[in-house]
TrEMBL record, chain A:
Organism: Catenulispora pinistramenti
Signal peptide positions on this chain: none
Protein name per its UniProtKB record: ABC transporter permease
Pfam families with a match to the protein in the record: BPD_transp_2
Claim: Lipoprotein is one of the keywords in the record: no
Automatic annotation (TrEMBL), chain B:
PROSITE patterns: ABC_TRANSPORTER_1, ABC_TRANSPORTER_2
UniProt cross-references to SUPFAM superfamilies, sorted A to Z: P-loop containing nucleoside triphosphate hydrolases
Database matches in CDD domains: ABC_Carb_Monos_I (cd03216), ABC_Carb_Monos_II (cd03215)
Record's keyword annotation contains Secreted: no
Protein's name in the database: Sugar ABC transporter ATP-binding protein
Record-annotated ABC transporter domain positions: 26-261, 312-558
Lineage: Bacteria, Bacillati, Actinomycetota, Actinomycetes, Catenulisporales
GO MF term list: ATP binding
InterPro entries per UniProt: AAA+_ATPase (IPR003593), ABC_carbohydrate_import_ATPase (IPR050107), ABC_transporter-like_ATP-bd (IPR003439), ABC_transporter-like_CS (IPR017871), P-loop_NTPase (IPR027417)
Chain positions covered by the region annotation Disordered: 554-594
Length: 335, 594
């Protein structure tokens, strides 16, 4: 025993192999982290340079104003995907939230806000409990949620034949009117989401669950509770988005929201969040949704003769490129 | 000889930090745990005093990990008592155990790869300011803490950018909090370099001096004798020994772990292996199979040994069936070389963690390592499993469930899986031919199933193992790597599998047999290569393959039986080995593997 210990200096030793990252790997890591922002800036710059005269504030307000509510779906989805799960029900909950808001608004603006939030939060919580405590696959649970929420919507509106209108003078309408009020609300929620993700133990728990659920359990983190909360959060945000949408449209529209969950997933993934979980940023999702919105706008503008088919095709291609880039970066780091 | 558990041992050096009469920091009394009818722990006792480092020893399956998980609230005991500082506790979750002051470093490193080093370090107990995580304080504290562990890194970088050793240190720093009164370390050194091990030991000594109790699990004997004060040995879910570390000679420790009495002469044979090579017989109906199977490029059918004339193999053994030289990887293996002649069974011995499975995997190309592997004198250039299988190597993996059978598929599908490409003609596989092959193997290996369409998951462990053997036999391998082929299967199936190994050898296959059971190695092998900490420690040939010789080789004191204590020269020697340069070859190995 003495043979070895005598050779050991008392001072702390530096592990030369402590950091294995080469400059190249660090570059790759940065690229992964900042990639979405770089692409967003590049696309905007390219569009501005291509037609400087056309770029104006009206563009910005169109880009921001039309779609802002839907981005909340992507915010909720960011949390869910970070845990390695998925929430397919948000598109349906978005539509449900809108109808509930319109219905509630006849009894007062506060009910118009609370009703969709409470119902969608409860819906999300049930999904979370099934996932966390029932051990069911998130894909299946939320697929059931997607169908179920649509069904509830149909029942509420008598197969769409009943339309609920928001009273013309209710201040609830102002929440969705114009560009800056809804954008402000959405921006505030994103800011709160960022804090939640980056500056609380809860955000770290979500990342840990997605990274390695077994170790998260062994580390004593509240895994099941965090999972229930994440689906609850996602449902609530979808309900809030629906309420804002209802306020803007002035009525509950049953046909909207179909496929929005997929757009939200696309935005999250484009923003650099790993679909397998374990890494996710709210900032990346902001870039993701803005990027999709900008591309959508550009296509509307320059390729409108091809119709919406073009938008979807470009979005799809873009998603494929992003995921391919993620895979390539990952592989080149492993090498 | 084994003393009864919990017996106080005042002569032990453990008295250094622990007053003899102090209450146990952590105690498990007669704890029992079974999983689905399988007893993991039958009656385990463990008593750890404050201010001592306690070694928990036992071979694979002895119940160490289960015991640790019971102590830390991952599982709950079926019976028995767990007490912390004299009070009985029943932890329901890992969190409760942590709150009570038990910190654990689990065998697998528990870090979140994409999260920063600092966040990993403080996961679940982040420093807060105004209710939010105070990143600046967290990063500063993280740097300070890691500095003490000899790790100087950018704490904001994601943890996956760190080396394995540094990662282990982060996990360690995470687990060891200042208020931890009990620290449990499950093989913390398995991925550390010698220098890092010493840093770890400094930390352990600090913990011990401040009165914490440390439970230390490792398979490196040198480390145990260096750092541990007392030892508890588990075997088959029971505590078989507890006492001072220094009072237990290595040989005795190993025989306790393996359950072999050193003194008792071993006359009776306990395995179904043939007594010696000349009595091995090939299966009688091989010719029938030869027609069924396509002649592989190196199929053993092409020049098959004449039944009963197995000595003919010896004459043509100028070319080894398998020749391995200089296997070296970054951590586990150092210059492992061995040959297996056609028709020979070579045992690969060693304690857990000695690198046996890694060697087999490296031969197959599934574990990146530098070095050369040749089959029938022909070197395998591209080192991956596909190339190895094509060259005629087959491997029965240790973990049958994870790496072997596909539980949802039928017996038939499992058997022909690997052979399908060779059985097909223009991409179409004849079902009739498949059926004949499957039927042949089910008869020959006596696979007990309701029929070829029964799902493998419904079979017993022994029958699953036979299905796997059949799968590889379909490929006419030249070399068969068997990693613990009889673990976890019942006695009857065990004997049958051992018989099949003999038959295969008689037919000219070179067999590399890994087993933790000494009897299996001694009676089944023609020669035994013993590994210790990743390098070849001894080669036993023919009559040298005896229990005492093997135990001596495993223990690492070549001076023979009954040697009372850990020779110091031995320590020094093994250190110079382990401190040797190794990274050069490892890089090359990874290059080969990718």
């Amino acid at each position: 025993m003495s043979v070895r210990t005598s050779q050991v200096p008392a001072a702390p030793r530096v592990s030369p192999e402590g950091l294995l990252e080469t400059p190249r790997e660090r570059w790759i890591r940065r690229a992964e982290r900042r990639g979405p922002l770089v692409v967003l800036v590049a696309v905007c710059a390219a569009a501005t340079i291509a037609s400087p005269s056309d770029a104006s504030w009206s563009d910005v307000s169109t880009i921001l104003g039309n779609n802002a509510f839907v981005w909340l779906l992507a915010l909720g989805m960011t949390f869910v995907i970070t845990t390695g799960g998925i929430d397919l029900s948000v598109g349906s909950l978005y539509a449900l939230g809108g109808v509930l808001a319109a219905r509630g608004s006849s009894s007062g603006p506060w009910l118009a806000i609370l009703l969709p939030l409470v119902v969608c939060a409860a819906w999300g919580a049930v999904q979370g409990i099934l996932v966390a405590y029932g051990g069911m696959a998130p894909f299946i649970v939320t697929l059931a949620g997607l169908l179920g929420a649509r069904g509830l919507l149909q029942a509420l509106t008598n197969q769409g034949s009943t339309t609920y209108l928001v009273p013309a003078h209710s201040w609830f309408r102002h929440l969705g009117a114009g560009t800056w009020v809804p954008v402000g609300i959405v921006a505030a929620l994103f800011a709160i989401g960022w804090v939640l993700m980056e500056r609380t133990g809860y955000g770290a728990t979500l990342t840990a669950i997605g990274g390695n659920q077994d170790s998260a359990v062994l580390l004593g983190l509240p895994v099941a509770r965090a999972k229930v909360l994440v689906y609850l959060l996602s449902g609530t945000l979808a309900g809030a988005a629906g309420a804002l949408g209802g306020a803007r449209l002035g009525s509950g529209v049953t046909t909207i929201g179909v496929g929005y969950e997929l757009t939200a997933i696309a935005a999250v993934v484009i923003g650099g969040t790993l679909l397998t979980g374990g890494y996710g940023t709210v900032g990346g999702t902001v870039c993701g949704v803005l990027l999709l919105a900008v591309i959508h706008h550009l296509i509307d503008r320059y390729l409108s003769q091809y119709g919406s088919a073009m938008t979807d095709a470009v979005n799809g291609a873009f998603l494929a490129v992003v995921v391919l880039a993620q895979a390539l970066l990952e592989r080149s780091r492993r090498r | 000889m084994p003393t009864s558990p919990d017996e106080p041992d005042p002569s032990a050096p453990s008295a250094v930090g622990a007053p003899a009469g102090a209450p146990a920091a952590l105690e498990a009394r007669r704890v029992v745990k079974s999983f689905g009818g399988v007893h993991a722990l039958r009656a385990a006792d463990l008593l750890v005093r404050p201010g001592e480092v306690h070694a928990l020893m036992g071979e694979n399956g002895a119940g160490k990990s289960t015991l640790i998980k019971l102590l830390t609230g991952v599982y709950r005991p079926d019976d028995g008592v767990i007490a912390l500082h004299g009070t009985e506790r029943a932890f329901r979750t890992p969190l409760e155990a942590q709150t009570a002051g038990i910190s654990t470093i689990y065998q697998e490193v528990n870090l979140v790869p994409m999260m920063s080093v600092a966040r990993n370090l403080f996961l679940g107990r982040e420093p807060r300011r105004y209710g939010l995580v105070d990143l600046r304080t967290m990063n500063r504290l993280a740097s300070e803490i890691l500095e003490r562990y000899g790790v100087r890194v950018d704490v904001t970088a994601p943890v996956h950018t760190l080396g394995l050793g540094a990662r282990q240190m982060v996990a360690l720093a995470r687990a060891v909090r200042t208020d931890a009164r009990v620290v449990i370390m499950d093989e913390p050194t398995s991925s550390l370099e010698p220098r890092e091990v010493q840093t770890l030991f400094d930390v352990i000594r600090t913990l011990r001096d401040q009165g914490s109790a440390v439970v230390f699990v490792s398979h490196r004997l040198d480390e145990l004798y260096e750092i541990c004060d007392r030892v508890t040995v588990l075997r088959d879910g029971r505590t078989v020994h507890s006492g001072a570390m220094a009072a237990l000679p290595r040989m005795e420790l190993i025989s306790l772990m393996l359950g072999r009495d050193l003194v008792a002469a071993q006359d009776g044979r306990v395995t179904a292996f043939a007594p010696d090579r000349s009595q091995r017989r090939p299966a009688p109906d091989d010719a029938a199979l030869a027609e069924l199977l396509p002649a592989g490029r190196r199929g053993r059918w092409a020049r098959q040994a004449i039944p009963g004339d197995s000595d003919s193999n010896a004459t043509d053994s100028g070319r080894a069936a398998l020749s391995v030289s200089g296997l070296t990887d970054r951590h586990r293996l150092r210059d492992v070389s061995l040959d297996v002649a056609p028709g020979e069974v070579v045992g690969l011995g060693g304690l857990l963690g000695a690198g046996r499975s890694e060697t087999a995997q490296a031969v197959l190309g599934a574990h990146p390592a530098a070095g050369t592997v040749s089959v029938d004198g022909k070197r395998i250039r591209r080192r991956n499993p596909q190339a190895a299988v094509r060259a005629g190597i087959a491997m029965l993996a240790e973990d049958r469930k994870a790496e072997g059978v596909i539980p949802g598929l039928s017996v038939r599908e499992n058997i022909v899986l690997a052979a399908l490409p060779r059985l097909s003609r223009a991409g179409i596989v004849s079902t009739a031919r498949q059926d004949r092959i499957v039927e042949f193997f089910m008869n020959r290996l006596r696979i007990k199933a309701s029929g070829p369409e029964q799902k493998v998951q419904d079979l017993s462990g022994g029958n699953q193992q036979k299905v796997l053997l059949a799968r590889w036999m379909c490929l006419n391998p030249r070399v068969l790597l068997l990693d613990e082929p009889t673990r976890g299967i019942d006695v009857g199936a065990k004997a049958e599998v051992q018989g099949i190994i003999d038959q295969l050898a008689a037919e000219g296959v070179g067999v590399l047999l890994i087993s933790s059971e000494l009897d299996e190695l001694i009676e089944g092998s023609d020669r035994v290569v013993v590994l210790r900490t990743g390098s070849v420690a001894a080669r036993l040939d023919g009559d040298e393959v005896t229990a005492p010789n093997l135990l001596a080789a495993l223990a690492g004191d070549g001076s023979g039986l009954g040697e009372p204590e850990t020779g110091e020269p031995e320590l020094g020697e093994s250190e110079s080995e382990s401190a040797g340069p190794e990274s050069g070859g490892a890089d090359e190995g990874e290059g080969n593997a990718s």
